Please model this.
Amino acid sequence: MFDQFAVTMFYLVFNTVSSIVLVLLNKWVYVYVGFPNVTLTFLHFCTTFAGLFICQKCGVFQIKTVPLMQMIPLAFTFCGFVVFTNLSLETNTVGTYQVAKVMTTPCIIFIQMLFYKKDFSLRVKLTLIPITVGVFLNFYYDIQFNMLGTLYATLGVVVTSLYQVWVSQKQHELQMDSMQLLYYQAPLSAAILLVLVPFLEPIEFTLTHAWTTENICMVIGSCCTAFFVNLSIYWIIGNTSPLTYNMVGHMKFCLTVFGGILLFNDPFHVNQVIGVLFTLTGVTAYAHVKMKENQKLKAAVVSEENGMSPLLMPEKDRPEEE
Model:
């Protein structure tokens, strides 16, 4: 029991630290190293695939063969969401970048309601109000607000939402876990960016520039950290509760914003603090409501499988009244 607790705590702390380090390291590479954005993303994909290849050889997961054409739309959206979120990080403050990402939740719900006719309870919809208000307040009072950064942040949210919806569909449709999907996505996405990089960035400058040893180490560190974040997320999702994963996410959110203020002297208006608090309140409420709904759904499924109405179940086993 103690060993399992120690392992869980290690992964939670490791994921928290590596996620924060990745955001701040990428920002450092963009601001102080000047390394091209899309090229860095391409290197991230290559490193991720190399790491997954090693994990597969070590028996961490098994490759599942699927038609390659089914992975291509996923690979394009994977490229889009990573590139646009990185561009958002490059052009916005760390705090604004981090807050903007939270809009992914309302956007996913909107996409599922509009295109997939999925219904959500009123309580879920109400939790989206403080999230949206908080994000709006942060952008409105951001001293370093700029239209290009807002455009990148918006595109990042939309493409990330599409990606997450499609990943969920593919996992269910193909019965694949996240690492099996990523094993296909990473090399395909790297190949797509390899074609696009010469048209988007000065490749001659990247290849001939006299990068210092420190700069190269920062880029390599960014690539390796990106892989470790993906690997630790996979373990956490598979071995802890959704509530634990969400709470760790909230903590990373706050620490990353604080890190941006300390390392990059990001200005932070008092009304932005109010916006962040609104956002955190909404996200926490959303996680709580969804957890309760999932518990009720699981209880209903179990009772149906056992041929027993929830009303006839023992009191301790009944789903909670909401």
In short: Residues 2-317 form one domain. DSSP finds twelve helices and no strands in the chain. Confidence is low (pLDDT under 50) at residues 309-322. Residues 50 and 187 are 9 Å apart (CA to CA).
